[in-house]
Amino acid sequence: MARIRSLLPDLARAEQRVARAVLANPGLVARRSITALAEAAGTSETTVIRFCKAIGVGGYPDLRIALAADTARAEVRDDRRLGGDITPSDDLGEVVGKVAFADARAVEETARQLDVPTLRRVVAAVADAGRVDIYGVGANAFVAADLQQKLHRIGRVSFAWSDTHIMLTSAAVLTPGDVAIGLSHTGATTETVEALRIARRHGATTVGVTSFPRSPIREVCDDLLTTVAPETTFRSGATASRIAQLTVIDCLFIGVAQRHLPTARKALQATYDAVGDHRLDHPASPDTPPP
């Protein structure tokens, strides 16, 4: 289901009708014949088969199995009501439940579909990089700053940019051995895509983090890390996408720290000590940083 939602904008029009029919009632589609789905979508069985190939499943039987598995997972959680949209009539308690459900689902689905071999390549590139540039505008800029701060704390040379001119000029001075990471929920943010294009032109390894794997950012990236960001009416793409992105960059950061464990631990202790005098004494305050 997450894969279908992420690929929906890039499907052909007839295939989009199939996708919407599947998304509207995946449990029912899992029990339907290919003929019934084609009729519900107002298209042909051939289009349904093309849709299956476009989303990366072998054929219609494989699609039914995958949908049945997704439906079963949702039913086991017994919280399908929380997965509904937020409405103006929801009381505050229901809003809290639905927001928490959407955020938790963003983390779970992002982790479930995250390609570990791709993540491993990105970790290796960042761990060995002479310099890491991180690009993000709007809500993505907050995540970019968080990743930069994490990498900086373990002694990795890194910079986070959100200003268009600075992004472009910084990308222009990268060299082979450097890494440029672009954060874009839609994968179509002009400034981020252009900065990655320039960074790649100058020999840097380029990495994209997006919820839409077939978006324009794919064309300028050596590796692509994908996220899943379910949304509701009162929550813009900024909210769930940011939580999903933070999940990915935490995995990336920990992977890099593992590769430089002695120096990372030393750097974390040094940075913890540097701000120690700026904390008020309190019984709940830890004496040492977490390992």
TrEMBL record:
Q: Where is the HTH rpiR-type domain?
A: 1-74
Keywords on record: DNA-binding, Transcription, Transcription regulation
Entry-linked InterPro entries: Homeodomain-like_sf, HTH_RpiR, RpiR-like, RpiR-like_SIS, SIS_dom, SIS_dom_sf, WH-like_DNA-bd_sf
Q: Pfam families, from UniProt? A: HTH_6 (PF01418), SIS (PF01380)
Q: Which Gene3D superfamilies match?
A: Glucose-6-phosphate isomerase like protein, domain 1, Winged helix-like DNA-binding domain superfamily/Winged helix DNA-binding domain
Q: Give the PROSITE patterns listed for this entry.
A: HTH_RPIR, SIS
- Limits of the SIS domain: 122-262
The name this protein carries in UniProt is MurR/RpiR family transcriptional regulator
Q: Which organism is it from?
A: Actinacidiphila epipremni
The organism's lineage? Bacteria, Bacillati, Actinomycetota, Actinomycetes, Kitasatosporales
